[in-house]
User: Which sequence fits this backbone?
């Protein structure tokens, strides 16, 4: 036998042995996953995150550990996620506003385009335009008519300067040319209380037990909604787009985000698992009980949506000269 042939055969056998005995690459996930909620505990996002974490943990065979990192309109939590190792073991759940609105109001510690990867949208939360007992009209058309007849007569409260609600108000003012007086609060909780007491005529807010409860009592009246389509529970209430204000027809869209360099196959796996979880009856019920709407976009669709909303927000901020608080 040719000794060179024997050596070649031995080398081949050794290589085969190495391949068959080498440990396989660990399948994702092989350890717990950290899910950062970019808002304080106790809110709607926190409740959804914890329910989703439990569902994803069951589906994927690893615990999802929820961690609240609130502050700076969500920027603190997004920054912590963006600076984590891009291995799929640190994610964030957030509204898109820290990425689509905050960058146009000041410098951030992260780059919303190059540091953040949209994974999957989870839901959108419509924005209510509500009338308080101080409003003497009955419809959104009455808002415009009264404001035209008496500029400055209609006060519109929001949860703060440079919030989504503020952008909606400024967009309506820009489109209509009418004078609506913005009344900014520092957060949304007190707004509903003051609205029920008639401290102003209108206000914007996302669905909440407090707001929905006051609507059920008849204290507050829904005049319009910011949503892609009319809400199933308020089919007679038009969207702002239907009323002639497409740029003001905004919603609070929430989703899962990851550091930008997470491998594409992990991003795809996470999107698939989120879509599966959101489609379950118990998660759907949890989201819809307060008019939040399940809406799962894939990474490409979600990224396109985020970029488009960022461009719209930039235009409104620039044209209306909106400054951060």
Assistant:
């Amino acid at each position: 036998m040719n000794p060179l042939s024997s050596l070649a055969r031995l080398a081949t056998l050794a290589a085969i042995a190495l391949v068959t005995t080498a440990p396989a690459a660990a399948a994702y996930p092989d350890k717990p996953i950290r899910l950062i909620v970019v808002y304080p505990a106790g809110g709607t996002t926190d409740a959804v995150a914890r329910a989703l974490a439990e569902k994803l943990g069951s589906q994927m065979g690893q615990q999802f550990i929820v961690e609240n990192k609130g502050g700076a309109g969500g920027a603190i939590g997004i920054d912590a996620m963006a600076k984590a190792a891009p291995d799929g073991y640190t994610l964030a759940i957030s509204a898109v506003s820290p990425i689509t609105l905050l960058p146009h109001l000041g410098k951030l510690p992260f780059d919303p385009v190059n540091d953040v990867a949209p994974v999957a949208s989870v839901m959108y939360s419509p924005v209510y335009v509500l009338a308080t007992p101080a409003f003497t009209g009955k419809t959104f058309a009455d808002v415009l008519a009264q404001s035209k007849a008496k500029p400055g007569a209609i006060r519109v409260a929001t949860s703060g300067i440079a919030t989504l609600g503020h952008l909606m108000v400024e967009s309506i003012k820009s489109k209509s040319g009418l004078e609506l007086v913005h009344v900014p609060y520092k957060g949304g909780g007190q707004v509903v209380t003051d609205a029920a007491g008639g401290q102003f005529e209108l206000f914007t807010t996302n669905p909440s037990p407090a707001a929905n409860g006051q609507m059920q009592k008849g204290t507050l009246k829904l005049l319009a909604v910011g949503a892609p389509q009319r809400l199933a529970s308020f089919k007679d209430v038009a969207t702002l787009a239907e009323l002639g204000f497409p740029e003001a027809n905004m919603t609070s869209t929430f989703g899962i985000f990851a550091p930008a360099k997470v491998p594409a196959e992990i991003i795809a796996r996470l999107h698939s698992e989120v879509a599966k979880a959101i489609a379950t009856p118990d998660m759907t019920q949890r989201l819809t009980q307060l008019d939040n709407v399940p809406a799962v976009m894939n990474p490409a669709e979600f990224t396109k949506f985020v970029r488009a909303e960022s461009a719209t927000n930039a235009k409104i901020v620039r044209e209306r000269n909106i400054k951060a608080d």
